[in-house]
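User: Design a sequence. Structure:
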């Protein structure tokens, strides 16, 4: 699996350091509140579990499963809601946890969905932000790294449902997806 990686962008240690910093920022932002922290499956699974343990304060957690890449390297343009949250977020402070904001379509879909349900506030924490790829406006409040416009894998991010379990984030060799 490591042989398919062109270069490592962020090591496990760099990701851990970013999680610590973001955990502090989120702890301060929600001091005295009990946010509903919503992880976006499947990509954000590892980031969600790491970040939650770096937040010093009460929180509820939930997950939403949405998909638009269908295993490939480009957005299908349509975001499908595969599994909804089961928390009533009306009047609540919501924090969406994403692995990456790329075109912005997934995040825009979730921001609109949670706004419509009457959340008191909806903020976003993303590990990776890829601003050069943005098609739809969708800003994050807490950002781990701003990344170049390359297809990334690892630490939750997949190509063809593989590579999610890499402990680091890397750039996939283009021949892996151009040969398929
Ligand atoms: O900004 P966008 O262009 O919408 O891309 C970002 C979204 O795409 C990926 O999810 P994907 O649809 O691949 O599902 P997955 O998390 O199950 O891999 C990623 O985990 C984000 O949720
Ligand atoms: O760069 C990426 N890698 C994996 N999944 C993704 N989903 C959106 N962007 C990416
Ligand atoms: Mg994916």
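Assistant: Done.
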């Amino acid at each position: 699996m490591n042989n398919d990686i062109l270069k490592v962008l962020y090591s496990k240690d760099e990701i851990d350091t970013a999680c610590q910093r973001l955990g502090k920022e989120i702890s301060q932002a929600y001091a005295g509140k009990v946010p509903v922290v919503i992880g976006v499956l499947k990509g954000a699974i590892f980031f969600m579990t790491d970040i939650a343990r770096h937040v010093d304060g009460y929180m509820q957690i939930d997950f939403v499963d949405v998909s638009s890449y269908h295993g490939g390297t480009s957005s299908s343009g349509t975001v499908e809601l595969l599994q909804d949250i089961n928390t009533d977020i009306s009047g609540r402070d919501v924090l969406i946890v994403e692995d990456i904001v790329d075109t912005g379509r997934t995040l825009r879909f979730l921001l609109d969905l949670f706004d419509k349900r009457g959340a008191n506030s909806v903020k976003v924490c993303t590990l990776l932000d890829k601003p050069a790829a943005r098609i739809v406006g969708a800003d994050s409040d807490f950002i781990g790294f701003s990344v170049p416009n390359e297809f990334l894998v690892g630490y939750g991010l997949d190509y063809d449902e593989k590579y999610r379990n890499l402990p680091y984030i890397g750039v996939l060799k283009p021949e892996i997806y151009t040969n398929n």
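The pocket of magnesium ion (ligand 3) is lined by residues 43, 69, 158 (CB under 6 Å). Residues 40 and 64 are 5 Å apart (CA to CA).
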